[in-house]
Amino acid sequence: MKPRRRTTLLAVGALTAGLLLAAPQSASAANLVKNPGFETAGTDDMPYCWKKSGWGDNDFTFSTVADAHSGSKAMKVELTRRVDGDRKALITESAECAPPVTAGKQYDLALWYKSTTPDTSLTLFRHDTTAGWQYWTDLKTLPISGSWARAEVRTPEVPAGTDRISWGVSVYGTGSVTTDDYTMDQVADPTPDPVCTGTAEECANGRWDVLPTKNPVRSMHSVVLNNGKVLLIAGSGNSEELFKAGTFTSAVYDPSKGTYKQIPTPKDMFCAGHVQLQDGRVLVMSGNKGYPSADGRVGYQGYKDSYIFDPVTETYSKTNDMNDGHWYPSATVLGNGDVISFGGLKEDSTGSVTAERWSDAQQKWLPLWQVNQTWSYWGLYPSMILMQDGRLFYSGSHVFGNNIPGTGSAIYDYDANTTTQVPGLQNKDERDQSASVLLPPAQDQKVLTIGGGNIESNPDGNRLTDIIDLKATSPSYVAGPPLPQGTVDLGNGRVAETGNQGKMYVSAVLLPDGKVLETGGALHNRANPVFESSIFDPATETFDPVAADPEARGYHSSAFLLPDGRVMATGDNPGNGSWNHNVSIYTPPYLLKGARPKITSVIDKEWTYGDTQRITVDRPVAKAQLIRPAAVTHSSDPNQRFVDLPLSVDGDNIDLNVTSNPNLAPPGWYMLFAVDANGVPSVAEWVHLQGPSALAASETASAHVHSFADSLDGAVQQPGKKRTSAKVSPTIAGCDRHYGTANVCVPTAFPAEVKQTTAARCTWLKENDYGRLKVNGKDDPLRLDRNKDGVACGKADIRRR
């Protein structure tokens, strides 16, 4: 991971962020840029309506030169020394100069340029009518050009609340850029209103279909492969009987054929970690070494083994061992292709405090002494999301029980080896099996956290959502809109949720139209499925309830995006130990709006950071993006991301501008979608993104990032003393092992509405299909075997007082 640069934004000259802007005029076909060729002089040695801007430690010059593309003047920006930061000539941020824009519209930006450095970018700022001027995005990296070249790019849709924008070219490596003849035009609306191809209900809310062929394995791990198939990993599938028999399974599902192929599986990968490597293979780390003991004194154990699954041969091969066991580990791919992992349970059931790092260059887990250690216990499946400067954001989503101490959310700087608390997460100890996603597009650096509960105390799952903007100088979660409510099965059929009832075991899926589907869930620990789905719109920060999956999707369920734009949902493992083998497919409303655009060709499927890549389409599209394929389990997929690809449009030829920052789009295979103005996506094409980036041309150049998360107010924690592990209760799974087999989960704490009597508890267990429960040992902490015959909830037990 590269050393992180400080990124305090420094305005050179008066960037009039505090001006009260006049109401913008409507856009027209005319060029919206004033003084586009710098022919009219202004102040501060700059042309009229242009200002100097930039940040960081560098030496620079701004000058008006006679070497023009047309007319007599051009603007030159040069860096002669650079430690960090950039310099840019921007349109003045004022009502007089900044072009007016309309929310929801797109604009074609173009300029002529010469450049002696690859470290240049076309950069946008936007004026929010509430928050003022703020960095928006980088749209295009400009290749070196010794003669005049034209650069053109289309903006994303203008966000709500934006009335003006400012833009220009930034230089963030030593060298110079000379620019001239800027243009900005509003894009005409090319697409007619969609025509509904389903029922009115389906076109509004989508449709779920339960497939006729069932999933043959008890899979709780789902990985979308770069050939469009899906790897479904079960291991023992949370079945102690299968574990004792050494029956470990995986399957590969082919969505195009609707078929499954069972795969020999060498180890119990039940509750492992997994992530796609940059070459498309799947790294699977740790898993289940042993189930809890019958007396509850020993909990689950994680082994050190690690494997790679090859989608071509559909086989597993062993890697070197990890330094520790990690049952329920995190897995986050970094900007250089390495993988970092935290948390989980060791071989002796204690909590692992060992951070692990997979080296992409060496294709192995690094020895302990080569990995920075904080000796902190991050818990189970901690959601660690890669930020645009290489730091990691722990969102607060996790599995089992309470959150980490402090605020429950933090930013971890691997290079500095420091952890800084981030405030604002609501009810941090009731975010067990919530879901967190980096919202579309990844360039916006916003994270949404949804729902959750607590397996130990077993309250009702909640409706909480939280949103954080990691571009803020000191980011803090703010409360988002409450989750919509659905129906819940409390044991006697579905009833409407009431009060603050929400759900845990949430699945969240990034969709190619730039929205997020949340689906599935349950009200309590492995019980009471909730039937509710909704689509979150990051632009408006609102939920829109849609059709609900008819199948229960609680513990050990997952949902994920397929390359054809549909969503697949699998699994459910309630406390009685049963398994739902039915598979559901969601057809979102955007697939019921008529014909889909089609990507008719991709010139090159091997992409490099900072590239411009050409595709052809069969009709106009409004946007394109890369979506990293899913690797999801237990509500957790921290690598899920949607990366915007700004467009340059020439009829059916579309040039896509690839980010130059590997931290925004870590190397690997991605699904490429083209989307029309109605939000209808193409079927995805697979492209491979890897280095070197344009930034590599200069040893001192770093990822082109702007001021964000650089003035954190939270408490900073340095590495603690070296230790071997953290103490973890054997009941961390929220299950009382005194009753039934290891895959049966009698809750240590029953839902609050269940009275603390034998009759009430036994009635709840009967309503949730627990069946006959053998008592393990002589202890009966829940008072379910009052006559002490070794069987819980017999008739005599219920009659006794």
Automatic annotation (TrEMBL):
<dbReference type="InterPro" id="IPR013783">
    <property type="entry name" value="Ig-like_fold"/>
</dbReference>
<dbReference type="InterPro" id="IPR011043">
    <property type="entry name" value="Gal_Oxase/kelch_b-propeller"/>
</dbReference>
<dbReference type="InterPro" id="IPR006311">
    <property type="entry name" value="TAT_signal"/>
</dbReference>
<dbReference type="InterPro" id="IPR037293">
    <property type="entry name" value="Gal_Oxidase_central_sf"/>
</dbReference>
<dbReference type="InterPro" id="IPR014756">
    <property type="entry name" value="Ig_E-set"/>
</dbReference>
<dbReference type="InterPro" id="IPR009880">
    <property type="entry name" value="Glyoxal_oxidase_N"/>
</dbReference>
<feature type="domain" description="Glyoxal oxidase N-terminal">
    <location>
        <begin position="249"/>
        <end position="577"/>
    </location>
</feature>
<dbReference type="GO" id="GO:0005975">
    <property type="term" value="P:carbohydrate metabolic process"/>
</dbReference>
<keyword id="KW-0732">Signal</keyword>
<dbReference type="Pfam" id="PF07250">
    <property type="entry name" value="Glyoxal_oxid_N"/>
</dbReference>
<feature type="domain" description="Galactose oxidase-like Early set">
    <location>
        <begin position="596"/>
        <end position="688"/>
    </location>
</feature>
<dbReference type="Pfam" id="PF09118">
    <property type="entry name" value="GO-like_E_set"/>
</dbReference>
<dbReference type="InterPro" id="IPR015202">
    <property type="entry name" value="GO-like_E_set"/>
</dbReference>
<feature type="signal peptide">
    <location>
        <begin position="1"/>
        <end position="29"/>
    </location>
</feature>
<protein>
    <submittedName>
        <fullName>DUF1929 domain-containing protein</fullName>
    </submittedName>
</protein>
